[in-house]
Amino acid sequence: MTSPPSQRPRALVTAPFRGDGLDTLAGIADVVLDPWIDHRPLRLYKAEDLAERIVAEGADLLIVESDSVKGPVLDLDLRAIGACRGDPTNVDIPGATAAGIPVLRAPGRNADGVAEMTVALLFAVNRGVVRADLDVRSGEVWRDGTIPYQRFRAWQLAGQTAGIIGLGSVGRATKWRLEGLGMNVISYDPYNPEATHSLDELLAEADVVSMHAMVTPETQGMIGAAQFERMKEGAVFVNSARALLHDTDALVDALVTGHLGGAGLDHFVGENLPVDHPLCAMANVVLTPHIGGATYNTEANHSRLIADDLARLFAGERPLHICNPEVLA
Question: Which residue, 158, 166, 179, 300, has most beta carbons within 10 Å?
Fold first, then answer.
């Protein structure tokens, strides 16, 4: 790592940054704030373009959310990189380490937002909220000789069992919310001793299965045809994490046969679902386009986490959330 800075840093911030974290950052650095999220059309920097912008701004501190940080960016004399994500896959961590640049991250920044979206998806699926809204908007409240009270009856969530797969920050935030609804919550996570069940036990017992695991070689595709078959008849499947955790074709089959009662999904491989995909035609499926973490609070949270760790770093202290602590040696 380079010697402690002798002059005030200049920070180029291309992530949304707000709240107490922005105040903290402004207290330790000159700030050039240009969040990607404010740009129409969308602007995400490739590494070459980002490097040019850093040089043009005379910045020696970089804070990003989604821009590509590798190659020419890491050739610059940066004091630190703040990556406003829990898992900064957009940053070449080994490359930054080789260059002696500390990389800070923001774990758990969107836990409450994603947990709230999980609950929203569950309610929407279980109570037919989207279909009921469409009936009102299209003047079809009384349809096919029925009234809504006939079409939209459902079991209340209170008293049912929810199975959480992945008991990290989002899983824990979801757990207490579902418990607050009166649900019995069980969990599977081989890395958390507080988890209560094996995967097979959870699938057999849960009325609702909610995915909150990270995507790793071990977890990719962990819910496939065999796992859907083990779920209770009429169970609801919710995935507000990543689509790679489940086999989408197997999910479609389980819904078509009626084995599953419904599904709520906030993510798709490639960040998009073709309009002719079978899921789009299913009335018992609710689909949202990866917006679980899209809250202003998420931005305030990652701003605080990154800025506080930068303050620690510049004070000669060890940051709490550093990806490559070996550069501090």
Answer: 166
For residues 267 and 318, state if they share a domain.
no
- 236, amino acid identity: V
- Which residue is it, tokens 């899983």? 171
3, pLDDT greater than 80? no
Kindly state whether residues 237 and 271 are assigned to the same domain.
yes
Give the position of tokens 């029925």: 146
Question: Is 271 a residue of the active site?
Answer: yes
Between CA 2 and CA 20 the distance in angstroms is 28
Query: Within a domain: residue 4?
Result: no
Between the CA atoms of 224, 229, 230 and 234, what dihedral angle is there, to the nearest 10 degrees?
A: 120
Q: Count up the domains in the chain and report the number.
A: 2
Of all residues in the chain, what percent carry a pLDDT higher than 70?
Answer: 98
Q: How does residue 6 score in pLDDT terms, banded at 50, 70 and 90? A: low
List the CATH number of the domain containing 190: 3.40.50.720
Q: For the chain, give the percent of residues with pLDDT over 90.
A: 97
State the pLDDT at residue 2: 41
Which among 18, 151, 290, 312 is annotated as catalytic?
Answer: 290
Among 53, 242, 304, 321, the active-site one is 242
- What three-state secondary structure class fits 261? strand
Do the Cβ atoms of 217 and 244 come closer than 8 Å? Answer: no
Active site residue 242: yes
Rg of the chain on CA atoms, in Å: 23
Collapsing DSSP states into helix, strand and coil, what is residue 132?
helix
